[in-house]
Amino acid sequence: MSKEWPLWEVFIRSQHGLAHKHVGSLHAPDAEMAINNARDVYTRRNEGLSIWVVRASDIVASQPGDKEPLFDPANNKVYRHPTFFPMPEEIKHM
Amino acid sequence: MDRALFESLLRLGDSTLILSQRLSEWCGHAPALEEDLAITNTALDLLGQARLWLTLAGEVEGAGRDEDALAYLRHDHEFRNVLLVERPNGHYGDTLARQFLFDVWHYFLLQELTRSNDERIAAIAAKSVKEVTYHVRRSSDLVVRLGDGTGVSHNKMQEAIDSAWRHTGELFIDDEIDREMAQRGAGCSLAALQAPWYDHVREVLDEATLVMPSQDEGMHAAHRGGRQGRHTEALSYVLAEMQSLPRAYPGAVW
User: Fold this and answer.
1) Under 8 Å CB-to-CB from A42, ≥6 apart: which residues?
2) Which of A26, A27, A29 sits opposite B145 (nearest CB)?
3) What count of CB pairs under 8 Å joins A to B?
4) Per-residue confidence of chain B (254 residues) as pLDDT tens digits?
5) Fewest CB atoms within 10 A around its CB: which of A36, A64, B55, B158?
């Protein structure tokens, strides 16, 4: 057994935020203490309303080498981009 | 001057001030980065509370002493903190034991004070109890982790609880000032806090697989007196360090 506390990734939903955002990581012996620690490390200045912690080892990340097949779609399929719809004036950012 | 009110405010202010000073000693030395941040956060919470209590004490006294004069220019026999908070940090388990036993008491005390008929006391208590609710949760969680941890951590935590225990009796002994404040509806009886304190502490120690010392062990008369100004030598060392700058450079500002 490792003597180090496991690593946890911390996600916080801010006061007016709609989604949890990754803010960093920390070490903690278990989930409950990870929440406590996240509160002390990341939310002391009213940053958040909700905290998620997840064991870093439970996160599966995409490989940098997969960049092309995953993120390089064929741009000639224009129907994927909804650029043909006139937007009403009132809608500023879409 | 309202002597009972002034003394009561000093007791609250001094206990939070001295514990804050003790916790600050850990800055940069705690066993993990996360603990370092958490313990200094707690120190800052307590310092903020101390400032509110001491500022109000200065106003009640009406002798022109502000929070700084009360914090930095009083001698050890003028301090009114409970002895528990002036105990040296020891190892991290000692610090946690002290924190846990104090937090639980502090929480129930502030709960009572939110109902004070003195609006200023009720307001400071209401603000403080939010912070202290978290302090209790954190120190309780950690005592369980260390008590129910490795064999070594279990033994260290048990010794730390046993050692800090002797200074818990004082937390529940009312003197004439407490009685007067309770009678006026401005303060509360400390004796009434003992049952809920005992229940919470027992629950946490059980979960931590630790043995709860007997109630009598905290009741020895030699281990009380802080609230009346009779301290252990530990306080003198705390004050010597804490007050050295304002005493060497009177009126110094940032």
Assistant:
1) A10, A12, A23, A24, A48, A51
2) A29
3) 29
4) 999 999 999 999 999 999 999 999 999 999 999 999 999 999 999 999 999 999 999 999 999 999 999 999 999 999 999 999 999 999 999 999 999 999 999 999 999 999 999 999 999 999 999 999 999 999 999 999 999 999 999 999 999 999 999 999 999 999 999 999 999 999 999 999 999 999 999 999 999 999 999 988 888 888 999 999 999 999 999 999 999 999 999 988 87
5) A64
Q: Say if B134 is an interface residue toward chain A (CB within 8 Å).
A: yes
* Residues of chain A positioned with their CB less than 8 A from the CB of B37: 37, 40-41
- B38 interaction partners in chain A (CB closer than 8 Å): 36-37, 40-41
